[in-house]
Amino acid sequence: MWGKVLGACFGFMFGRFFGLFLGLFIGHLFDKSLKQDFDNAGGFRGFFNNDGVSERQALFFSSCFAVMGHIAKSNGRVNELHIRAATAFMEEMGLTGEDKREAQLAFNAGKADDFSMSATLREFREHFAGRFDLIQLFLEIQIQMAFSDGHLAAQEKTLLEQVAKGLGVSKTHFSFILKRYQAEFAFRQQQHKFHQQHQQRTSGGASSGMGRAQALHILGLEEGADAATIKKAYRKLMAQHHPDKLVSQGLPEHMMRLAQKKSQDIQAAYEYLKKAA
């Protein structure tokens, strides 16, 4: 009751009759003990987002490194390649000092025998309900960790499937994301090879190691896709991986570089397909 009364009063003060009805609605949510649903739907964060973002950023950061640590121990022991990949990952993000220590602590927590991945994913999913782009990026980061040694072991794939399920991602969409990342991974490997061998010939060298099939797979498409379909897929993926938007939804700013790199790969694939048309 008091939620509706106070909500109506404050709403009328700041927004007259529109504010009154908005205040009544918000007060009703609290009176009915629906605070959790209210938060998941955006709550006051929809109007005043700053405090909520920092809380979500901390959760994204810790959950991400904890699950990465769990994947690193997927075969029952710590995979040294995964540890080096996690360290490189932290360096790529520019983590230093306390931030790096926090990442290491979360990673080590994920390696512990008593770590509950299901509980971690459940909490993550509750706090990021409705923010599917961030959920998808979280899954993509875990796939990237699993691929750090150049291939995907059976235990790693099983774990990734569990991560996808815990996040509410369907098997079909998981397969789509996995296939797209495999194309990204192959593209980056080719880029590295070209740089090492000094075989870049143009200013657009980032796409010189790419073939049509690979470019299509980066966009999540198959051979035969027409220009309109390619453009639609490109715009959708660029919107999903837009760094500023993801940060505003709760992506830690340290991880903005990951979204930027993915956007660059998507852009390179699209530019290649446009030139090859």
TrEMBL record:
InterPro entries: DjlA (IPR023749), DjlA_DnaK_co-chaperone (IPR050817), DjlA_N (IPR007791), DnaJ_domain (IPR001623), J_dom_sf (IPR036869), TerB-like (IPR029024). Keywords: Cell inner membrane, Cell membrane, Chaperone, Membrane, Transmembrane, Transmembrane helix. It is found in: Cell inner membrane. Residues 1-4 are periplasmic. The chain crosses the membrane at residues 12-30. The keyword Lyase does not apply. SUPFAM superfamilies: Chaperone J-domain. Residues 214-277 form the J domain. It is a single-pass type III membrane protein. Pfam families: DnaJ, TerB. Its main location: membrane. Residues 29-277 are cytoplasmic. Homodimer. PANTHER family: CO-CHAPERONE PROTEIN DJLA (PTHR24074). Regulatory DnaK co-chaperone. Direct interaction between DnaK and DjlA is needed for the induction of the wcaABCDE operon, involved in the synthesis of a colanic acid polysaccharide capsule, possibly through activation of the RcsB/RcsC phosphotransfer signaling pathway. The colanic acid capsule may help the bacterium survive conditions outside the host. The transmembrane domain is a dimerization domain. This is Co-chaperone protein DjlA. It comes from Pseudoalteromonas qingdaonensis.
